[in-house]
Every structure is written in structure tokens, then in C-alpha cells.
Design a protein that fits this description.
Blueprint lengths: L2 H6 L1 H19 L6 H8 L1 H15 L5 E4 L4 E4 H20 L4
Antiparallel strand pairs: 1-2
Helix pairs in contact: 2-3, 2-4, 3-5, 4-5
């Protein structure tokens, strides 16, 4: 696995890392009202990674990038759904603040 492969996996890895962080914070701290706001602020990292990948794809002549021995393909279609997932997760966190 190369650095380029980790760059291509940065958006899903940061999303999974945020989920693990939120579970650990939930286990350690008694105050639960901070979790939704920590989650929304934490979603900035996967969103930033996706935006960087999106603009890097604009400079690609093929329109997609491959990694992990050709088994991973990052294109704008997949990044669109990652944007959609991050926005849906953020809205869900904001709606669940009272609960």
C-alpha cells in the first residue's frame, strides 16, 4: 500500500475514524450533549478529504483514479455519494441533539 492509496482512502478512513472516536467518547464521558456537536465538527475532516479528492480528479485526464493494485477506483460518482452520506450524517446529528 502506497501513500497514493492512503490518499484515495482518506475520506472513508476519516469517516470510520470519526465513528470510532465518537463511540469511545460516548463510553468515557458522562456528558452526552457534546456528542452531536463533536460529530458535526468531526465531519469537516471527511468533507475536506472528499473536496480535495474532487478537485484532484478535475486535474486527472481519465476522470478517475485507481489504487490498491487496481481494486479501488475513485471517481466523481462515488465522491458524490460520499458527500451525500456526510451531509445526511450531519443533518441526522443536528436533528438528534434533543435526544
Amino acid at each position: 500500500m502506497t501513500v497514493h492509496d492512503l490518499f484515495l482512502l482518506s475520506a472513508p478512513l476519516s469517516t470510520a475514524g470519526l465513528a470510532i472516536l465518537l463511540v469511545l467518547v460516548d463510553l468515557v464521558f458522562k456528558r452526552k450533549d457534546i456528542l452531536p456537536w463533536l460529530g458535526v465538527l468531526g465531519l469537516v475532516v471527511p468533507l475536506t478529504c472528499s473536496v480535495v479528492l474532487w478537485f484532484d480528479l478535475n486535474h486527472s485526464t481519465v476522470g478517475s483514479m485507481q489504487g490498491v493494485f487496481g481494486t479501488l477506483v475513485v471517481d466523481k460518482f462515488g465522491l458524490f455519494f460520499h458527500f451525500l452520506f456526510v451531509i445526511a450524517a450531519g443533518l441526522t446529528l443536528l436533528v438528534s441533539v434533543d435526544y
